[in-house]
Write a structure and sequence with these properties.
Layout: E1 5-9, H1 15-19, E2 28-30, E3 33-38, E4 41-48, E5 51-55, H2 59-65, H3 72-77, H4 83-91, H5 102-110, H6 117-131, E6 134-137, E7 140-143, H7 148-152, H8 156-160, H9 167-179, H10 185-189, H11 193-200, H12 208-218, H13 229-239, H14 248-258, H15 263-277
Antiparallel strand pairs: 1-5, 2-3, 3-4, 4-5, 6-7
Helix pairs in contact: 4-15, 5-12, 11-12
The chain binds a DNA duplex (13 and 12 nucleotides) through helix 6, helix 9, helix 12 and helix 13.
DNA sequence: CTCCAGGTTCCGG
DNA sequence: CCGGAACATGGA
């Protein structure tokens, strides 16, 4: 039994770049399309030129999730004018920051510390399959991300069997604090960026980087600028060439000022570009070219 | 086998 | 404030 399909008109949108850029980890390729879950809705999506094919009834949900209303041309035009940013903008054309549900985004990034993207995806799938609600899509079994309340009932030992390592304690602790109401994600959503970041950092396993990922990918804070190992390489190689002793604080202050009101988008474009085009462990080999700031 | 991965936390200068 | 080290697990 196949649901009828509908077409959503898209401009400045690239589904491949959007789902393969390392912002969300559970979507799987299915022929020319992708299969995944938006909240509690399982679906297959496929892009054909300027059309996004989705199951009937999912048009609005998909359009919201994929942030088709973000003014991408304006966003890209706001990026600082330097060679690296121009290359990233060209490489990532059509990539959008999707609107992930806050908890699954936050939880996923709690499990991301010191893990490769492939591992993060693996952990996400395991957690969904074992503890998430089953949502069917045309016969395929997909799973929603387990709610904080469901996760809070597990033991650390149980969670550890999902290959989480030391992250199990953090994920469980965060789930319990949220389930018990010690941290209210709905309240976080109503706070300013700085206050929201402080609040998220009260959760175990959530430091500045994970908090910024949650803010950017789960709370629509398009200015949040997560600095991970890749972005740190980019910043050092491109904007601080041949400089010794560039502190984390220096990188943070520079990023907050240099990349502008859509800094989070700029960050994700640089992240994806560097990860796909720089040699592994890269940065050192890249020619610095010109300094943009 | 060694190295590293979308870090956080704790500890000593 | 800053640099190091521990923390688990699995690809490359």
């Amino acid at each position: 039994m196949t649901r009828p399909l509908r077409s959503v008109r898209v401009h400045d949108f690239d589904l491949e770049q959007t789902l393969d850029c390392g912002q969300v980890f559970h979507w799987r390729r299915d022929g020319a399309g992708w299969i995944g879950v938006i909240g509690e809705h399982a679906l297959r999506v496929e892009q054909r030129g300027e059309e996004l094919i989705v199951p009937a009834g999912m048009e609005t949900i998909a359009a919201h999730y994929f942030a088709l209303d973000h003014p991408l041309a304006e966003i890209c035009a706001s990026f600082p004018d330097d060679p690296a940013m121009a290359a990233a903008r060209d490489f990532c054309r059509g990539m959008r920051i999707v609107r992930q549900p806050a908890w699954e985004c936050l939880a996923t990034f709690i499990t991301s510390s010191m893990k490769q993207v492939a591992h993060i995806a693996q952990i996400s799938h395991t957690l969904r399959r074992r503890y998430g609600r089953c949502v069917k899509w045309d016969g395929a079994e997909l799973f929603a991300y387990p709610a904080p309340e469901a996760m809070a009932r597990l033991s650390e030992t149980e969670l550890r069997t999902c290959a989480l390592g030391y992250r199990a304690k953090n994920l469980l602790g965060a789930a319990r604090m949220i389930a018990e109401g010690q941290v209210d994600l709905a309240a976080v959503a109503a706070m300013g960026d700085a206050a929201a970041r402080v609040e998220l950092c009260r959760l175990p396993g959530v430091g500045e980087k994970v908090a910024n990922c949650a803010l950017l990918f789960g709370f629509e804070r398009v200015r949040a600028f997560p600095i991970d190992v890749w972005i740190e390489r980019v910043l050092r190689a491109i904007y601080f060439p041949r400089k010794r002793k560039v502190t984390a604080r220096r990188l943070r202050d520079f990023s907050a000022g240099y990349f502008g009101e859509y800094g989070g988008y700029a960050q994700q474009y640089l992240f994806h570009y560097a990860r796909k085009t720089w040699p592994r462990g890269g940065g050192k080999k890249l020619s610095p070219k010109k300094n943009g700031g």
